[in-house]
Amino acid sequence: MATTNDLKNGMVLKLDGGQLWSVVEFQHVKPGKGGAFVRTKLKNVLSGKVVDKTFNAGTKVETATVDRRGMQFSYKDGADFVFMDTETFDQLTITPETAGETANYLLEGQDCTVAIYEESPLFIELPASVELVIEYTEPGVQGDRSTGGTKPARLETGYEIAVPLFITTGEKVKVDTRSGEYIGRVNS
């Protein structure tokens, strides 16, 4: 158990009859009149749904002990993803539902963090950005460099993102794993 005064980003709470919610952001508010309260943005760990919830300051909330383990993506087995614990070398199979959007940025040998609760994987945490090679994109036309347009490009993972017109096939780009947006070129 913890109180709402102890909240931190990334903390996992057990609310609404055992559902797991991750704290995305929180803000302590002390109005001129009335009692203080904590305004939070919570993300359902299993469904990914984000909700705003307000707690009175000092309210007791149940925390879930989530084990975050350093893992390395080994290979894809059918639709499932197989990870290796970097300390014990144990293998862990994760379903596509659990992998969610992070599957779009996974390459074999990539390090990440897997959150585990009661021996079942909850979600995969990737770095804020990853570097991936453009597998295919339409060639740019001379003069495209000055316009602000974008075109679709397929990454080496098979995921498609929008890139500026001057990007060519085979280039390495940096991609934001939270939004799926192009960040910039990576100079080799």
TrEMBL record:
Known pathway: Protein biosynthesis; polypeptide chain elongation
The Translation elongation factor P/YeiP central domain sits at 68-122
A molecular function GO annotation: translation elongation factor activity
Instruction: Identify the SMART domains for this entry.
Output: EFP, Elong-fact-P_C
Any coiled-coil regions, as ranges: none
Elongation factor P C-terminal domain span: 130-185
Keywords from the UniProt entry:
Cytoplasm, Elongation factor, Protein biosynthesis
Annotated family: Belongs to the elongation factor P family.
- What name has this protein been given in UniProt? Elongation factor P
Native source species: Streptomyces spiramenti
**Taxonomy of the source species:** Bacteria, Bacillati, Actinomycetota, Actinomycetes, Kitasatosporales
